[in-house]
């Protein structure tokens, strides 16, 4: 995702200075000065020499100076170059592996409960916020009901064959009446039983057209607006978020950006986009700052990996979100292992 020839242009000294600045910044969150680097360099060089190298790296757009001080921090481009070309992801520690294994090994027939534990464990291990997108549940419908809550608010109650009940508030058509709601519900119940929401949406336009003479205009609009709501979006309950408080634990946290991120997570908007972040190829993907459109306003980084079912179809994703100063080398193997294990558990595979 970066301009790799840029890395090849750096000589050994420039590459080492750049790597040490990034590693120090990720570990401490503080700007790195030339004097500190002289103590750790492989070859003995003067602070003046290191300052010149850092200026060159700044001209390339890899380092920046947040204050008037001589210290430097990596830019977004610098972090991307480091992650793609210089970062060495460490092996998963035994302690991390055992906690993940234990979390997924607990007996639970409920996928949601299991993935909720996974999200909590990820947040605890990484000390960041965790995101887990559950597989879409497509249980057949058993019953649908509309309930008026006022002139501009209504409730749709969805009862599924597996016993799950979902209540969603939406804006009904102007002029809706109790009789129109009963008519819309009766129409849907006559065609919905035994069908999933996806099945229902696929043929609803045809069904409404065929029944146009039997349905009045308001009832037809109720059916259409209800199905538009059921497409998911901000009402989709499949995104599990844990560990928001960890984002505030960082002393350097930008509170305005954190609030923006909290708002995004609370609304759970564009949930399908989170899965799209992960579904272009297997394995872990890293999005830094404005690279991820889903949380770009908060300037956050996302480490995400998809998991698959037994048919090798991507059905969900697990990830970690936090400031750009994440410990990528440790988080990447944690997310990777968790995604693979979740896929095996959900598919009934062992290994």
TrEMBL record:
GO BP, sorted A to Z: negative regulation of DNA-templated transcription
Domain Heat-inducible transcription repressor HrcA C-terminal span(s) in chain numbering: 114-332
UniProt entry tagged with the keyword Transcription regulation: yes
Encoding gene per record: hrcA
Family as reported in the entry's similarity comment: Belongs to the HrcA family.
UniProt key word Transmembrane: no
Name of the protein described by the UniProt record: Heat-inducible transcription repressor HrcA
GO molecular function: DNA binding
């Amino acid at each position: 995702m970066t301009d790799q020839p840029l890395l090849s242009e750096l000589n050994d000294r420039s590459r080492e200075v750049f790597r040490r600045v990034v590693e120090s910044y990720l570990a401490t969150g503080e700007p790195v000065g030339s004097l500190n680097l002289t103590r750790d360099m492989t070859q003995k060089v003067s602070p003046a020499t290191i300052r010149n190298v850092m200026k060159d790296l700044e001209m390339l757009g890899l380092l920046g100076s947040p204050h008037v001080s001589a210290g430097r921090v990596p830019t977004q481009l610098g972090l991307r170059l480091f992650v793609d070309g210089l970062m060495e992801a460490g092996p998963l520690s035994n302690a991390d592996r055992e906690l993940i294994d234990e979390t997924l090994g607990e007996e639970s027939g409920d996928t949601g409960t299991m993935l909720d534990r996974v999200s909590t464990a990820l947040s605890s291990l990484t000390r960041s916020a965790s995101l887990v997108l559950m597989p879409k549940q497509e249980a057949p419908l058993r019953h649908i009901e509309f309930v008026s809550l006022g002139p501009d608010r209504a409730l749709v109650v969805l009862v599924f064959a597996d016993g799950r009940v979902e209540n969603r508030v939406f804006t009904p058509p102007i002029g809706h009446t109790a009789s129109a709601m009963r008519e819309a519900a009766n129409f849907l119940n006559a065609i919905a039983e035994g069908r999933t929401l996806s099945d229902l949406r696929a043929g609803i336009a045809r069904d409404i057209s065929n029944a146009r003479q039997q349905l009045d205009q308001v009832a037809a609009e109720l059916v259409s607006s209800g199905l538009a709501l059921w497409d998911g979006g901000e009402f989709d309950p499949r995104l599990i978020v844990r560990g928001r408080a960890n984002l505030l634990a960082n002393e350097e946290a930008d509170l305005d950006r954190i609030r923006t991120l909290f708002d995004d997570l609370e609304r759970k908007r564009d949930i399908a986009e989170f899965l799209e972040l992960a579904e272009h190829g297997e394995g872990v993907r890293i999005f830094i700052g404005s690279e991820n459109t889903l949380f770009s306003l908060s300037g956050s980084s996302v480490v995400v990996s998809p998991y698959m079912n037994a048919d090798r179809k991507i059905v969900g994703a697990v990830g970690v979100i936090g400031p750009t100063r994440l410990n990528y080398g440790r988080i990447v193997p944690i997310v990777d292992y968790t995604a693979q294990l979740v896929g095996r558990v959900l598919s009934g595979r062992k290994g």
